[in-house]
Amino acid sequence: MSEPWLVVGLGNPGKEYAGNRHNVGFMVADLLASRVGAKFGRSRRAQADVAEGHLGFGGPKLVLAKPLTYMNLSGGPVSQLAQFFKIPVENVLAVHDELDLPYGQVRAKRGGGEGGHNGLRSMSKSLSTKEYARVRFGIGRPPGRQDPADYVLSDFPSAERKELEFLVDRAADAVEAIVLEGVEWAQNKYHAT
Known about the structure:
Blueprint lengths: L4 E5 L14 H12 L5 E2 L5 E7 L6 E7 L7 H10 L7 E7 L7 E5 L7 H10 L5 E6 L9 H5 L5 H24 L1 H8 L3
Parallel strand pairs: 1-4, 1-5, 5-7
Antiparallel strand pairs: 2-3, 3-4, 6-7
Helix pairs in contact: 1-5, 2-3, 5-6
């Protein structure tokens, strides 16, 4: 069996943040947990909710994590979990919101910059590398002169919520594709549309 993967949904803990654009990583992690028949529980190893399961019968193990440190400090729990579960950085995958993609676009990549995303910046610092995989969920740019910080901490509007479940499903599919087939394969599949 292949090595386990640490899939990190980036977001902020608490009901007041649950429907925020910034919490789409948590939404994808929740869906992946339900797909592998796992439930999130508080980790004793790191400030995170963790769920463990296998991707298909005999498939790779997934350690799903939702850091509870708030977005800007996500890296600490990620590196602690990677060390505890002995997961190499090439098998760490972050799912996050992306201002630089139009709403609903899902993109896969490995490494690169953080694009001003504080959750990614914290992960890169704690892991001492940027070479982890990412599933980027497009939320688009804020309208007019709205502050990007306010925009990411606002809920998806009703027009976008109509498609949100389908798009979260697509992002979860992209995570599974990376784990099973690799980043390049996922790029070929998900970047065409």
